[in-house]
Amino acid sequence: MSQDGPLDGLAGPVRMCVGCRSRAARSVLLRVVVQDGVLVPDHLASLPGRGAWLHRDLQCLDHAERRRAFPRALRVAGPLDVTSVRVELGNDPTSAGTVPGDD
Hints:
By secondary structure, this protein is α+β, with helices and mostly antiparallel strands. It is built from three helices and five strands.
């Protein structure tokens, strides 16, 4: 039983970006986790703990920060240091693209 929808063409698991709140294939999103109050990228999606998913785009990171989405999604109290994720996305050549649905 399959439902017809906009994600039918996506292969594999689908996750929601905490920044733009659009759904995308897990393979195009970056998982982030909290370690000692710092948000860190989880490239292999294997670090322990609750994770949140984010497009590899600084704009989505900005949206998530503005909406305070990380503490909510990761179920932690207080603000998180996102510097390591910001540096990672700033150095990522694929982060220069646009976010789907941001037309």
